[in-house]
Amino acid sequence: MDLPLLITGGYDHTLRYWNAHLGQCFRTIPYNDSHINCLEVTPDKTQVLCAGNPLMKLFDLSSASNTAVSTMDGHTSNVTSVGFEKTGRWFFSSSEDSSVKIWDCRGTGYQLSLDNESTSTATMATTASAPVPVHGAALHANQAEVLLGDQEGRVQARITAVSQAKQPRELSAVNH
């Protein structure tokens, strides 16, 4: 698409393509499975990934079809964020199901699931480890770590490579 494109989605179960200069919606795609929590355009700007509860769907931007080219199923609750690494070979998703998942765009299913568990002393006293919903995530500029924010207010850095998936590194607040 040559025109400046804005893509929106929301609780009305609709994906919309807009001409950004004119502010006019020129295409709508029904997203009947759920509301849309977040979306991300692929780095090559040919597709858009939409995420709801709990599915994610990939749509071809140049296609006239309203059918997704791919559907990703792996979360059990609201998907709260998605993002692609810079070459578009893989993407991540975070969810209220307390996980961050790494997906290979060339394959099916997720390749890595990083579970987010509580480190709260109060929670640890009652359970061995309790899952904590992930409210947002972003890919670090180094393209190797996903930064996640969770319901307990923590921000953590998680390694995305399967061979290096170790304990989370919690980031502490810096006061200036």
From TrEMBL:
| Each WD repeat, start to end | 1-28, 72-104
Q: Which UniProt keywords apply?
A: WD repeat
A single GO cellular-component term on record: TORC1 complex
Q: Which SUPFAM superfamilies match?
A: WD40 repeat-like
One biological process term from GO is: regulation of actin cytoskeleton organization
Pfam families, from UniProt?
A: WD40
Q: Which Gene3D superfamilies match?
A: YVTN repeat-like/Quinoprotein amine dehydrogenase (2.130.10.10)
**Entry similarity comment:** Belongs to the WD repeat LST8 family.
Q: Can you say what this protein is called?
A: Uncharacterized protein
Taxonomic source organism: Vitrella brassicaformis (strain CCMP3155)
Q: From which lineage does this chain's organism come?
A: Eukaryota, Sar, Alveolata, Colpodellida, Vitrellaceae
